[in-house]
Amino acid sequence: MKYLFLFLLPIGIAITACGGKTEKPVENALEGLAFFGDTISPDNAMTVEQMIALMGDKDSANIKVTSSVVDVCQKKGCWMDLAMPNDDYMTVKFKDYEFFVPKDITGKTAIVEGIVRKEIESVEWLKHKAEDAGQSQEVIDAITENKTSFTFEASGVIIK
Fold first, then answer.
1. What is the CATH architecture of 25-159?
2. pLDDT at 88
3. CA torsion, ordered 52, 40, 110, 157, to nearest 10 deg
4. 3-state class (DSSP) for residue 23
5. DSSP state of 42
6. Is the separation of the CB atoms in 152 and 114 below 8 Å?
7. Rounded to two decimals, what is the model's pTM?
8. Which candidate, 50, 53, 77, 78, places its Cα nearest to that of 64?
9. Comparing C-alpha atoms, which of 113, 79, 83 is closest to residue 94?
């Protein structure tokens, strides 16, 4: 029995020294899910239509929503646009600029958890975003008005 203790002692020390924590999985191969930021669950994510109804007259809400990715920052993956009704989009940025998403996820489904807001996106931001997305100078120059839309600050993202 005393030899078992001598065998288990180094294992216990190693676990304690490492804080007993394991790394967050970046990808769950069994389900084909990739996680970014805080690890969140895909359960109970609402559609963008449900989100719009929930928002009503509210300026913001803490929610989990799912939609398809229609655009991604091609410089760093520091923002993405999710599909909304009527060919519109909702820009998703990432909490405290702590994480980014892959640049090749257009067309995939995203689940985002965080804060949705109704905001005015400035011409300056919209031009910057168009440039990051690789749009032509003609498209960038055609942006002349602010846009009122939903924006999202995600603390966690799942891409499937």
1. Beta Barrel (2.40)
2. 87
3. 100
4. coil
5. -
6. yes
7. 0.71
8. 50
9. 79
Handedness of CA 96, 94, 125, 74 (dihedral sign): positive
DSSP 38: S
Rounded-to-integer distance, Cα 85 and Cα 157, Å: 21
Tens digits of pLDDT across the chain (160 residues): 444 344 444 434 333 333 332 234 444 444 788 999 998 999 999 999 999 999 988 999 999 999 999 999 988 899 999 999 988 889 999 999 999 999 999 999 999 999 999 888 899 988 988 888 788 999 899 999 988 889 999 999 999 9
Look up residue 88 and give its amino acid.
D
Q: Do strands 46-47 and 60-72 pair parallel, antiparallel, or not at all (unpaired)?
A: parallel
C-alpha to C-alpha distance for 39 and 75, rounded to whole angstroms: 24
- Written as six digits, the tokens of 54 are 């929930």
Locus of tokens 């559609």: 47
Q: Which two three-digit tokens encode residue 49? A: 């239509």
CB burial string 104-121: b at 16+ within 10 A, e below: ebeeebbbbbbebbebeb
Q: For 42, list phi and psi in degrees, rounded to 5.
A: -75, -10
